[in-house]
Design goal:
CATH class: Mainly Beta
GO molecular function, one term: iron ion binding
Shape: globular
CATH architecture: Sandwich
Protein name: Intradiol ring-cleavage dioxygenases domain-containing protein
Largest sheet: 4 strands, mixed
Strand content: 35-45%
CATH superfamily: Aromatic compound dioxygenase
Structural class: mainly beta
Strand order of the largest sheet: 4-1-8-7
Number of helices: 1
Number of strands: 8
Radius of gyration: 15 Å
């Protein structure tokens, strides 16, 4: 599973703001990278699922576009981690921070939704938040280390 499927439909996102999602897989037991483990990644409003295999340092990187806020939901990306044998080990969501949402959406933002009012993130969003750098013109990069 080394090919990457791009999740890029700019018309359905925050005015086409590019987003690269970078995840680093680390073992919770040893703290070491987990090369060869597979990651699937998707947006809730798209049927496509992207797959990638972690490189020797445990990184995967998915080109995409900033996800829209679904009904009652804060902007986020879904992902799952699989062992080299294909066993599902971890399922989670990557929450995008408010400043990144403001950059991507501008004044439209997310219509009063907050991470605290999102039914899936209440009480635990701090563990699911990404670090985001960049700008709307050149694109944003969401990064998170994932313990498996």
């Amino acid at each position: 599973m080394t090919a990457t499927l791009s999740l890029d439909r700019p018309a359905e996102r925050a005015h086409g703001v590019p987003l690269t999602v970078r995840l680093r897989l680390l073992s919770t037991g040893s703290g070491r990278p987990m090369p060869g483990y597979a990651v699937s990644l998707w947006h809730c409003e798209q049927p496509e699922v992207a797959w990638q295999t972690a490189d020797p340092t445990g990184w995967v990187s998915f080109p995409s576009s900033f996800p829209d806020a679904g009904a009652g939901r804060w902007p986020h990306v879904h992902f799952e981690v699989f062992s080299a044998a294909g066993d599902r080990l971890h399922t989670a969501q990557l929450a995008l921070p408010g400043d990144a949402c403001a950059t991507a959406f501008g004044r439209r933002h997310v219509s009063g939704h907050t991470l605290a009012t999102d039914s899936c993130f209440t009480g635990g969003w701090a563990l699911e938040i990404a670090s985001v750098t960049g700008d709307a013109a050149r694109g944003l990069v969401a990064t998170r280390t994932v313990g498996v």
